Amino acid sequence: MPTIPRWRLAGYTVLALIAFAANSVLCRLALGDLSIDAASFTATRLIAGGLMLLVLMSLKERRFNARTWLKSGSIKGALYLFVYAATFSFAYVQLDTATGALILFGTVQLTMVLLSLFRGERMGTLEWIGFGVALAGFVYLILPGLTTPSVTGFVLMMASGIAWGLYTLNGRGSRTPMLDTTGNFVRTAPLVLLLFLPFIDDILITPTGFWLAISSGALASALGYILWYSALPHLTGIQASVYQLSVPLIAALGGVVLVGESLTARLGVATLMLLGGIGLLLWGKRRQAAQPASSGSR
C-alpha cells in the first residue's frame, strides 16, 4: 500500500471527523427549527449522498458504470445504513446536538466491543474497568433529572449507533470500501420510499431544511466517508477508534456555536465517563494485543 505524507493523512482525518460531527449539527439545525420533517431529511440525505458518491466514483474510476455499482455493496449493508440514518433523524427531533452525538458514538464503540465478546474475544482487567465506566456514563446520562434526555430520543439514537456499528463491522473486510459505500447508498432508495408511507401526512420541506439535508448527505456524509476511507488504511484500528471519540466533542462545540445550545454539567460528566471509559477499554485492548509480541521476542 503506497504511503501518503503525514500532513495529508492528518488533513483527511481531521476533515472526516469534522464531517461526521457536522451531520449531527446539520440534522439538529434542520429538525430543531422545524425546517423539515425527519422522514424527508432522511430521504434527502441518503439520496443526495448516493448521487454525490455516484458522481465522485464515476470521476475516479474510468470503468465505473451501472453494472459495477450494482455488484457492489450488499442488501445487509444498505439495511444497516438505512436504519442508522432513519433513527438518527428521528432521534434528533428530541435530542440536542451534543447529547445525540455522545449517545451515537458511544453506542457504536460499545456495540463493536460487545460483538467481539460474543465472538469469543476476551477482555483484560483494564478493559472491563473501561467498559464499566462507559456503561456508568450512559446510566448517569439518563438518571432522572432536569437534563435527562428524552427516553424515546435516547433509544432511537442507541438504535442508530447499533446500526452504524453493525454497518462498520459488515464492511470491515471490504477491499473496495468507497465502491461498496456507493452501492449501499443506492440500495437504500426503495427503503426511503417506504419510509414516507407512515408519515405521508406529516411531510414538511422548506428551502432551508432541504438544503441542510442536501449538505448533510452530499457533503458531510459522501465527502466525509471518502475522506475517512482515504485515511483509514493508514491508521491502526485503535487509532481509528480513538480519533472517532473526538466527534461528540466537535459536535458539542458546533451545537453551542451554530445551534445556540448550552452545555450542562450532567452532559460534561457523562461525556468524561463514557469517552474516558472507552479510551481505557481501547488502551487495555492495545496492551493485551502487544503482550504476545513482547513475550515472544524474549
TrEMBL record:
Keyword terms: Membrane, Transmembrane, Transmembrane helix
UniProt entry tagged with the keyword Transmembrane: yes
Compartment list: Membrane
SUPFAM superfamilies linked: Multidrug resistance efflux transporter EmrE (SSF103481)
Keyword flag Chloroplast: no
Transmembrane region(s): 34-56, 77-95, 101-118, 125-143, 149-167, 188-205, 211-230, 242-259, 265-284
A Pfam family it matches: EamA
InterPro entries: AA-Vitamin_Transporters (IPR050638), EamA_dom (IPR000620), EmrE-like (IPR037185)
Membrane-topology descriptor: Multi-pass membrane protein
Assigned GO CC terms: membrane
Domain EamA as annotated: residue spans: 13-141, 152-282
Name of the protein: EamA domain-containing protein
Species for this entry: Saccharospirillum salsuginis
